[in-house]
Design brief:
The structure holds 2 protein chains of 2 kinds.
Chain A: E1 4-12, H1 19-38, H2 43-55, E2 76-82, E3 87-94, H3 100-110, E4 115-117, H4 118-127, H5 141-153
Parallel strand pairs in A: 3-4
Antiparallel strand pairs in A: 2-3
Helix pairs in contact in A: 1-2
Chain B: E1 2-7, E2 13-19, E3 40-43, E4 47-53, H1 55-61, H2 63-72, H3 77-92, E5 96-102, E6 107-111, E7 115-122, E8 125-129
Antiparallel strand pairs in B: 1-2, 3-4, 4-5, 5-6, 7-8
The chains are: A alpha+beta, B alpha+beta.
Chain lengths: ~170, ~130
């Protein structure tokens, strides 16, 4: 079988000034994932690598650069699934960790459960050796501006600033 | 939201999706991304899907699994992706996007939103985009 990797960096009302960063970011991420496949690695490791790359990139709404809730906090969620045996791992309401996808991966491989949230996800992550980061280290200027704009205009569902008249964003 | 679908040399498929959600969301709000069948689905016998867009709509439509079921019934990856995303948008009046890989390596990409960034590598060539068409 020829290895293939396909990724996305989010759908929505992406303003023109964010286009280049997103295109650059998806190219870096897809190459990171493909490198794993080219070396004979598993599809599971490849999708984790690609998502990790985008979680570290401010241009995407995941990990560092995640948008903020009404309290100005980053609260992330992630899932990962293996098609061979339909096993899956998922986490939600994750704070203070830079890579929720890796915690979800651990839920898949090292837990009898499939989905862990909030305080339980934090306890699970710490038990598996993940370390926390200061919450402000995950907050980007774009995320702060997006929340400020939401609080001023009240348009729920916008993950980007500078565009109007289209809701429904990733 | 970000996501990835891959098939390795053994024909095994995996999917990963990660998100910060939506700006101004309620404390404690959960979207589609961590829900298997909505934000993510993988089955070696059919294919894999990762979705992005309006979370409340995607989870009500079980968008990822909707695409998989269309493919299970013989629809190709690209058509299944377009039909399910369009169906969700028509029914729930919100936008979404999805990426799909079939067990045979066929690629599906579609979004009803204004833009969606995507990229894939197949036959050692990189393809990428963000606009319609």
């Amino acid at each position: 079988m020829e290895p293939i990797i396909l990724i996305h960096g989010g759908a929505g009302d992406i303003p023109q000034n964010r286009v280049k960063g997103k295109l650059d970011g998806v190219k870096v991420a897809v190459i990171a994932g493909h490198k794993i496949l080219a070396q004979g690695g598993s599809a599971l490791d490849a999708v984790e690598a690609a998502v990790l790359s985008m979680e570290d990139d401010e241009n995407f709404n995941a990990g560092y650069g995640s948008v903020l809730n009404l309290r100005g906090e980053v609260a992330m969620e992630a899932s990962i699934m293996r098609g061979e045996d339909l096993n899956a791992g998922a986490v939600t309401l994750v704070k203070d960790f830079p890579h929720p996808i890796s915690i979800a991966y651990k839920v898949l491989t090292d837990s009898p459960h499939s989905f862990i949230g909030g305080e339980g996800a934090k306890l699970f992550a710490l038990d598996k050796g993940f370390t926390t980061v200061p919450p402000e280290s995950l907050i980007s200027e774009n995320a702060k501006n997006a929340l400020e704009e939401f609080l001023q205009h009240g348009e729920l569902g916008r993950t980007e600033i500078g565009m109007k008249n289209e809701g429904g964003v990733g | 939201t970000v996501g990835a679908v891959a098939i390795d040399k053994y024909g095994h498929i995996a999917v990963a999706t990660s998100t910060g959600g939506m700006s101004g969301k309620a404390v404690g709000r959960i979207g589609d991304t961590p829900l298997i069948g909505s934000g993510t689905y993988a089955d070696d016998n059919i294919g894999g899907v990762s979705t992005t867009g309006h979370g409340e709509s995607i989870l009500k439509y079980c968008l990822a699994h909707s695409i998989i079921k269309l493919m299970e019934n013989g629809t190709d990856a690209n058509t299944a992706t377009k039909e399910a995303v369009t169906g969700m948008t028509n029914r729930l009046k919100n936008t979404a996007g999805a990426i799909t890989l079939s067990k045979n390596g066929d690629v599906g990409i579609y979004f009803s939103s204004k833009r969606m960034s995507w990229a894939y590598i197949k036959s050692n060539k990189i393809f990428y985009g963000i606009e319609h068409n």
